[in-house]
Amino acid sequence: MSGFDKWLGHSAALLLALLWVLPLLFAIWTAIHPVAFEARFQLTAPLTTENFVKAWQAAPFARYFLNSFILVTSILLAQFVLCTLAAYAFARFRFPGRDFLFVLVLMQLLVMPDILIVENYKMIRALGLVDTIAAIALPYVASGFGVFLIRQAFMTVPSELDDAARVEGAGVLQVLWRVYVPLAKPIYLAYGLVSVSHHWNNFLWPLIVTNSEETRPVTVGLSIFASVDSGIEWAVINAATLMTSGPLLVAFLLFQRQFVQSFMRAGIK
Amino acid sequence: MDRRDWVYGWLLVLPAMVFLGLFTHLPAITTIWNSFFSTPRGRRPKLFVGLENYQRLLDDPVFWKVMVNNLWFALGTIPLSIALALIMALSVQRAFAGRALVRMAYFTPTVLPLIAVANIWLFFYTPGFGLIDQITGVFGLGQSNLLGSPDTALVAVMVVTVWKEAGFFMIFYLAALQTIPPQLSEAAKIEGASAGTVFWRITFPLLMPTTLFVSINAVINSFRMVDHIFVLTGGGPDNASSLLLFYIYETSFRFWDTAYGATLTVVMLALLGLLAIGQFLIFDKKVHYK
To answer: Are B262 and A118 in contact (CB under 8 A)?
Structure first.
């Protein structure tokens, strides 16, 4: 390829990237400038945090953040425990019905709880859990995707390591904890990032099962805040929008490489 | 096979299987079951109605509307997102100044909640006041109401979807491109092949498994992604931008007609089942692996 071609290719890449990031830049622009500069782009426009303060005071975002935080951490912990145990069984134990059960696990890759909203709501109501954070989490704690991913990692562990630990007298769970889990750390990181971002961003199911401030995650809180036709200024809505995406955005900027690799690893295996 | 292995195996899978059963398999079965009953209302219990819900489905113009919308939505977003993803991946494949920034720009929308993405775009679309109208206003063009007009509402929703998805698919292509040995294209260039020939005869065929994988994900997403509709259009005007899952939500949780909601979900399950079968057949035949 000639030098000019290369230069052309890179300019096109930069242009597309600029176009791609423009909507986000606009949102940031309006959020950090006074309302008067909402669509006036001057480099000398004064900066302000007023929009963020207004948004924070106009709705119980502190509570929403706490709810989202509790939600994603409890889902992640439950997923790690349940999926690890099941993945271990599928990777290293032979028992009748194993293949059938594994097919049942894989079915969840296609038939996700996201689309079974009608009957899952009935289930949650039958359990008396409507409008609790547990209700948002429960359908997702046994993740077919998680079982599959961790099983793949466990299968690459040499069985000599497993045998050696057993000869030394380690029990089944000790072998799992001391041999398998440490060797699968990169997979746990990958799965963790995917899970946290997915459940931080999830909207439809939490919208259905929550109806109070004490349980709503930030996504539902944001939609209620922004949809009220009370003439809230755009700048304030954009500030709220950025606020709710903030933790993930900051985490992404800090761990960019891990994020991209995690999504890649999680998708391909 | 050791007896003890059996017990350990079962005990280890038990917790996960209980939750999977309660929130995936059992609901899938009761969905089908309840589609043959009427919705219980107040003191009136549900009654067996046979295929009545399905008859209603066939006669329901809104159902057909959302099915056609979903088809357009899939046709409009999937090929475009995938093509853009491939272009993005190719453009940041080689090192150049600013590559990390470019890649980050492509990928960032993927990290944002869909509901937040919709809020950002709503700011552009709002008639008169929104950014699009401010720009067209400079050129003396009239106001537009992209979200409020039945002809453009779905397209406006699709644009937002592509913006959110393309960067996500890009990373799969990036990973796949790394596995293609550079000797292949070097050899082709020595033979005098143009860049276009190298792409269409070497790179693109070798990326086929990735393209298929990404397509399947994209199809599943086209059924699942409805969050932005809540913010942008609420399915309107006149269901012009409503999709199947959104209609299921409206039927079940706005009009509380859960039996009909279950019937609509059965359609969704059937479509996903077809997808699974198709995937199985294509994976077996059409795609050549290394």
So the answer is: yes
Q: What 3-state class would DSSP assign to A111? A: coil
From the CB of residue A157, how many other CB atoms can be counted at a distance below 10 Å? 17
> Using one digit for the tens of pLDDT, what is the confidence trace for B19-52?
999 999 999 999 999 999 988 887 888 888 889 8
Write the CB contacts of A27 (distance below 8 Å, at least 6 apart in sequence): A238, A241, A242, B120, B123
What does the angle CA A115 – CA A140 – CA B37 come to, to the nearest 5 degrees?
Answer: 40
- Tokens at residue B143, please? 């106001």
Rama region for A47: left / alpha / beta (φ>0; ψ in -120 to 50; rest): beta
Q: pLDDT-derived band of residue B288, with 50, 70 and 90 as boundaries?
A: very low
Of B2, B171, B231, the CB nearest to A263: B171
Residue B290 pLDDT: 35
ipTM of the complex: 0.88
Q: Is the peptide bond before B79 cis (omega within 30 degrees of 0)?
A: no
Q: In terms of CA atoms, which chain B residue is nearest residue A251?
A: B111
pLDDT tens, residue by residue, A72-110: 999 999 999 999 999 999 998 988 999 999 999 988 888
pLDDT tens string A219-263? 999 988 887 655 667 788 888 889 888 888 888 888 777 777 776
Cβ contacts of B92 on chain A, cutoff 8 Å: 13
Domains of chain B by residue range: 60-287
At CA B168, angle to CA B167 and CA B170, rounded to 5?
60
What CATH class has B60-287? mainly alpha
B185 CB-side CA count, 13 A: 18
Q: Are B192 and B78 in contact (CB under 8 A)?
A: no
Looking at this protein, which amino acid is placed at residue A139? P
The CA distance from B107 to B85, in Å, is 10
What would the two tokens of residue A141 be? 């704690």
CA distance A244 to B17: 34
Residue-range domains of chain A with CATH: 1-48 (no CATH), 59-266 (1.10.3720.10)
pLDDT on residue B289: 44
Please identify among residues 65-94 of chain B the ones whose CB lies closer than 8 Å to any CB of chain A: 87-88, 91-92
Interface test with chain A among B13, B36, B37, by most A beta carbons within 10 Å = B13
- Both tokens of B15, joined, read 């917790």
